[in-house]
Amino acid sequence: MTEPKEGSGADRWRDNNLRRLNELKARGINPFPYKFERTHTSKQLQEKYKDLEANVETEDVVSVCGRILNERNSWMFVDLYDEDGKIQLFFHKESVPAEQLEILKSLVAKGDHIGVTGTIRRTKAGELSVRVKSFEILSVALLPLPLSWDGFTDVEARYRNRHVDLIINPEVKEKLQKRSIAIRALRNFLDERGFFEVETPVLQVEAGGADARPFVTHHNALDIDLFMRIATELHLKRLIIGGFEKVYEIGRIFRNEGISTRHNPEFTMMELYQAYGDYHQLMDFTEEMVRHVANAVCGTTKITYQGVEIDFGKAWRRVSMYEVIREVTGIEVEKIKDFDEAKKIAGELGIKLEYEATIGEVANTIFENKCESTLMQPTFLMDHPVEISPLTKVHRAKPGVVERFEVFIYGREHCNGYSELTDPLDQRGRLEDQARKREAGNEEAQPLDLDFIEAMEYGMPPTMGIGIGIDRLVMLLTDSASIRDIIAFPTMKPHARQ
RNA sequence: GCGCCCGUAGCUCAGUGGUAGAGCACUCGGCUUUUAACCGAUUGGUCGUGCGUUCGAAUCGCACCGGGCGCACCA
Asked: Which backbone phi and psi does A178 adopt, to 5 degrees?
C-alpha cells in the first residue's frame, strides 16, 4: 500500500483517529492496554448456545474480545470478530453505564479491538448476542479498513496488504488454517510411523537434487557465494547413509524461475526417505498418506477442485510413461531407433526440439506436451527415461527406464518418488553426464556433488524416497486456483512508494 | 522472457477529446431504541509515472512502473 498522501482521504482519516486516540489518553484511558481475560471465543458461544431460542435472555455472564467490523443502530448492535467467527454485541442504555456508552459512540470506531463483559441472550431476530454490561478498548486502529459493500477484491492490494485481506475476506484465513492442518496431519502421519523430522542446510555450496536454477547469495566472512537449496534430497540421503532409517523434512525450497499461478519462488516441500523400501512400497505409502491428509483437511477423500471431482479414495492408477504416451498419441517409444526418428515423430506432433536430445528426453517432452494435462485423477506415472532421472535406480526389468513415479492430479505434478540410486559408481557416472550437460549450457542440469558421491561410497541401503509439493497439495484441498491463495505472503515485485 | 487485459476518492466502480463522478466508508446533524444496510449535509482525487499529440488529455500515442491471466521455464 502506498503511504497516505498529504491531504488525502486516508490522511484525514488517520487525523480523525489520532484525535480519537489523544482524547482517550486525555481521559486517562490507555488505548493500547496489556491484556484481556476472555471466557469464550465467539465460536465457543455459538456452539454452547446453539439451542437457545430467539428472544430468550440468560443470566450467564461471559467475556469476549475481538475486532469491531460493523455497527448498527447507532452502536446498539456491534459485530465483534475473533479468530473463529463473530458474535453480536448488544449495547443498551439500560445495561451499559452512560459514561461508557458515550465513549463507545464518540471514541470507538470500526477496526478497533474491544473486550466486553455481559450476559448471553438471543435477540428477537435470532442473533446470539452479548448484552454488554461493561467494555474496554483493547486497541485503536489508525487506518481505515476497506469496509465497502462491494468487498476488498483488488488482487494486488490484497496480496500486498495480507493483514487487511485476512480481516476482510474470511476465506483467506480459512485456507491458511487448512494449510496448517494439512502440514500437521502430515507430521502426525509420519511421526506415528517412526519417522524423525530433520533439518538440512538451506545454504549450500552446490545446489543439487533437482533440475532447477538456484538463488545465489554471499557469505561475507568466508567470502564465498552460496546457493539456496533447490531440494533437500542429497542431505537427507546422507542421513540414511549415516544410519537413519526413516527421515523427513518439511522445508522451504527456493527456485529461481518464473512466477505463475502454480509457482512461487519459495515454496514448501516435504521429502521423506525410508531405508529398505522400493518405489512399489512407496506408492502404497503415498496413497495412504495423502488420504490421511485429505481426511484431516476436508473430512473426506473425495474433493472438488475447480469443478472437477478428484477421488483420492479409489486405488490410484499406476501406469508407465511410455504406456500413457502410447494411449494418447499412439507412439511406441520403445520402437524408436534413434534421435533422428524421435525428432521426426516429435515434429509431426508439432513439438520443436531445439537441441540435440536423447530418445528418452524426446519421450519426456512428448509426455509433457501431449499427455500431462490428461491425467486428472490421481495417477502414478511410472518408469521415466533414465536420462532425466540421475538419482534413481534403473528399472529391475525394463531397459532405458528407472524405478520412478510422479503423481499427477488435475494434470499437474504433485509428487516425485523413486527407488533411490544407491550404487556409487553408477551415481558418479550419472552426475558426470549431468555435469557435461551443464557445461553444454543447460543451467538446470544437476551439479557434480563430490561430497554426496563420496558419502555414497560408504554404502547406502536400498531406499525409497519422495518429495511432495505441499503448496500444490493444499491448493487441491482448498480448491485454490492460485498458489498465492495458500501462501500467506507470496513473492511480489516491490512497488515504488510515492 | 513473450502475448492479451487492467491501474480514476479509503473500498467497489462509472466516465473514451470539452468544468473529475456515483455507491459504500469517514465527519457532522436528524430520526429510531431489540436491527439502521435509514434520511440530510459536508468532506475526500498529482485519474499509476513520465514524455508527446492537441486550443484542450482520465480519455489519443510512446516509454516506464505495478498487477491479473495465458504461454515459456518449472514443482
From this structure: -65, -35
* Nearest amino-acid residue to B9, taking CA and C1': A9
Where do the domains of chain A lie, and which CATH numbers do they carry? 9-145 (2.40.50.140), 170-316+377-486 (3.30.930.10)
Distance A138 CA to B65 C1' (A): 40
* Integer-rounded Cα radius of gyration of chain A: 29
Which nucleotides in chain B lie less than 7 Å from some protein C-beta? 1, 9-13, 23-28, 30-37, 43-46, 48-49, 65-75
Structure confidence by residue, pLDDT tens digits, A284-313: 999 999 999 999 999 999 999 999 999 999
How is residue A156 written as a grid cell? 494486488
**CA of A490 and C1' of B57: distance in angstroms?**
37
Render pLDDT for A20-70 as a digit per residue (tens, 0 to 9): 999 999 999 999 999 999 999 999 999 999 999 988 999 999 999 999 999
Residue whose cell numbers read 488525502 = A8
Task: Please tell me the distance from the alpha carbon of residue A213 to that of residue A230, in angstroms, as a whole number.
Answer: 8
Q: Smallest Cα–C1' distance to nucleotide B13: which residue has it?
A: A150
- What's at A492, amino acid-wise? M
Report helix, strand or coil for A334.
Answer: helix
- The whole-number Å distance from A88's CA to B39's C1' is 25
Q: Which amino acid is at A127?
A: E
Phi, psi at A147, each rounded to 5°:
-95, 70
How far is residue A136 CA from its own chain's centroid? 37
- Which range has the worst mean pLDDT, A223-237, A300-314, A341-355, A440-454? A341-355
ipTM of the complex: 0.89
Nearest nt to the CA of A467 via C1' is B75
Which residues make beta-bridge pairs with A250?
A270
Round to whole Å and give the CA distance between A126 and A333: 67
Round to a whole number and report the distance in Å from the CA of A455 to the C1' of B22: 70
